[in-house]
Amino acid sequence: MKTEIQTDRLVLREITFADKDELFELHTDPDVQKHTGEPVVESLEEIEQSITGRLHDYKTYGFGRLAVIEKGTNAFIGWAGLAYLPEFDKIDIGYRLKKKYWGKGYATEASIAIINYAFNVLQLEQIIAIAMPENKASIKVMEKIGMTYDKHAPYDAVIQNAVWYKLSKIDYLNQ
Questions:
Q1: Where are the domains of the chain?
Q2: 40-88, pLDDT tens digit by residue?
Q3: What is the DSSP string of 53-108?
């Protein structure tokens, strides 16, 4: 069964190879990549490898990052979803949107739907989110969706001072 989550304005669905040009556009924007710790993508081959990884995640874990489609226009506006981080044995929620869709509440709307799906359908116990401290917009989304500050800690060799947030199923159900 393919994952599809709907909100008032969005459809969240599994990423496919048909999304590669849109993903390439997203990941070649230096402003989009600025606070991710990842370099700007340079080739469609990199995107195809990323999609292969997404397909693996859906099959292996039953969840992954999802394409975010605006209902009114059917436009691909970015991605949002869950990812298993084996190096921490944690499940992360993340989002990345094309710049022209920033500030419209889409990251928050998608994230709320994903959290609901994670706790009520997948029966996960906890979700984390990680951001660079200067990424105030992402941190604001984390707080809006009910996550609480956990710690400042390294994420990888590039991001040594990440801000970690968390949300447990118990806290989510008691909100």
A1: 4-125
A2: 999 999 999 999 999 999 999 999 999 999 999 999 999 999 999 999 9
A3: HHHHHHHHHS--EEEEEETTTTEEEEEEEEEEETTTTEEEEEEEE-GGGTTSSHHH
pLDDT reading at 1 higher than 80: no
Going by C-alpha positions, the residue among 86, 88, 99, 82 that lies closest to residue 145 is: 82
CA nearest to 101, candidates 140, 137, 47 = 137
Task: Read off φ and ψ for residue 44, nearest 5 degrees.
Answer: -65, -30
For 4-125, the fitting CATH number among 3.40.50.970, 3.40.630.30, 3.40.710.10, 3.30.450.40 is 3.40.630.30
